[in-house]
Amino acid sequence: MRWIDSLEAAAAEKLPEPVHRYFRQGSAGGVSVSEAVAAWNAYRFRPHILTDVSTVDLRTTVLGTPVDVPVLVAPSTLQLQADPGGEVAMAAGVAAAGSVVGVSSNAGSTFADIAAAGAPWWLQIYVVRNREVTVRMLDAAVEAGARAIVLTADTPVVGRKEDDGPTVWETVQATHGLANVNEDDYTDDDLGKADDLGPDVIGWLAERTGLPVVVKGVLRGDDAKRCADAGAAGVIVSNHGGRQLDGSIATARALPEVAEALTGTGTEVYVDGGIRRGEHVLAALALGARAVFVGRPALWALTVGGSAGVTRMLTDLGDELDHALRLVGVPRAEDLTPDLLVP
Ligand code: FNR
């Protein structure tokens, strides 16, 4: 069996059942989470023949940072449940693969410890009602060397998970806590998600940090344009792994409209959700993404193999992409074009 496909079942053996469920679940009826992979599989390629594919180059830059492979790790919570090294082990695995790691606002390790693992990292931020909390987190991230701020914009309220009893999140929160917020200093209301944000928050984040801002959760061309006009350096086409509005369009289907809307703006386009194979990465790049993010595969790989598992998962996807580029007849990822696909 292909190693990446074996990871979830192997992780399920090691993880406490509620944690496995938390990692895999979508919100509400689970429609979006169940469609994500299939939507990538629904594309068909129109490969070129008789082109020189003797040398393939996967390297690119993301917001100016060079990466060896255009597969980055999406921010996610509860990594200490996957491996004792948590976010630090995740970042070490990413560093060895020559990629970039997204670090969640809800990380269980401190930014300084994560940064010391050596991977370039982007802070994912949830802007909360008490801006002082957000400002402190931003300042700490800048201090620890974050290269970009990823504003998660699809979460004015948290998606409803149809669990019985307290969620894993609440249970684990009670024991682990957040490493980069002093929760004792604030009320639940202070820490609740801000639900009154407009595009001006992009400029505010950029000004406060001096870092490029990437908006995560974009699913429409018009919103992508609003983000670009407000100063976003990038957008991530994402439906939060099917964990926010259930029934949201699959990212494989939303990406072309967003890429089209941002043509010529200089705003970089990324995508996540259901990307599990080199062919999925190939499709995403051909449709205009500069790089992709993977969420759950990184959690499964961290659980099964620690930082070495994360490195292997990323390099395996890179190897598959290399192979697929040769077969599609385009040796340089940046030369991929949408005509290589039919929906
Ligand atoms: C997430 N995701 C997420 N996103 C975010 O902006 N902040 C966060 O703290 C989290 N936490 C989180 C936890 C878990 C367990 C999962 C599975 C996901 C969403 C994540 O960044 C990404 O958008 C999706 O996971 C991508 O989809 P795939 O690759 O998991 O299909």
UniProtKB/TrEMBL annotation:
Keywords, alphabetical: Flavoprotein, FMN, Oxidoreductase
Molecular function via GO: FMN binding; oxidoreductase activity
Cofactor list: FMN
Residues making up the signal peptide according to the UniProt record: none
PROSITE patterns: FMN_HYDROXY_ACID_DH_1, FMN_HYDROXY_ACID_DH_2
FMN hydroxy acid dehydrogenase domain span: 1-343
UniProt-annotated binding residues for glyoxylate: Y22, Y126, H240, R243
CDD domains: alpha_hydroxyacid_oxid_FMN
Active site: H240 (proton acceptor)
Binding site for FMN: S104, Q124, T152, K216, S238, D272, G273, G274, I275, R276, G295, R296
Pfam families listed in its UniProt record: FMN_dh
Family, as annotated: Belongs to the FMN-dependent alpha-hydroxy acid dehydrogenase family.
Entry protein name: 4-hydroxymandelate oxidase
